[in-house]
Amino acid sequence: MLNIFRKHIEKFTQVSDDEFEEIKKFFDTKEVARKENLLEEGHVCKHHYFVVNGLLRKFFINEKGIEQTTEFAIETWWLTDNFAYEHKIPSEFYIQAVEKSTILYISKANQEQLLKAFPIMERYFRFIYQRAYAAAERRIKYLFSLSKEEFYLQAIRNHPEFVQRVPQYLIASYLGLTPEYLSEIRKRHIS
Fold it and tell me: Distance between CA 181 and CA 185 in Å, rounded?
């Protein structure tokens, strides 16, 4: 399991066996049941989560009481409420397991200690944050420049395995569609 994490680190920087043995001590592991919440709105966001296997989502409940999914995380992706995590404040989001998942997680204090002890991990986390920011930028562009149908088709082209894995009602939530409208779009493109 930790080999997955090490391989991910080594996509961005190199660590020795001895360094990795020390690095992994800063993280904890957790098995998460399907639909189990790791974070709830109003609670201080204390952890940053790395998905070893499984699928997580981040969402909020809008003024109409509808869940609005903003992010997903599959294997080797990170997920947290970055603003609440960095500022140690209550979150406006939920983080929930979509599937039974295995995660590594790190607290803000442990992450700060890790970065002091292993400056090379600054490089790793810089790349992680850059990629997350780039993905958020792209999603915002798609939200403003594509129709809902084009946004869905773009998601299928970019991540076909992901779209097949995530329940349709959650894809609809992520795209800002009703499940019924997403069903209509899918029917049009299947026929």
Answer: 6
What is the DSSP track for 134-162?
HHHHHHHHHHHHS-HHHHHHHHHHH-HHH
Pairing, β 78-79 against β 94-97 = unpaired
| Residue pLDDT, tens place only, 158-184 | 888 778 889 989 999 988 888 888 888
Distances (CA, A) of 12 to 15, 79, 99: 10, 18, 28
Q: What is the pLDDT of residue 49?
A: 98
In angstroms, rounded to a whole number, what is the distance separating the alpha carbons of residues 189 and 145?
Answer: 21
CA-to-CA distance for 87 and 72, rounded, in angstroms?
Answer: 22
Token pair of 72, please? 């997903």
Instruction: List, in order, residues 6 or more apart from 179 with CB less than 8 Å away.
Output: 168, 169, 172
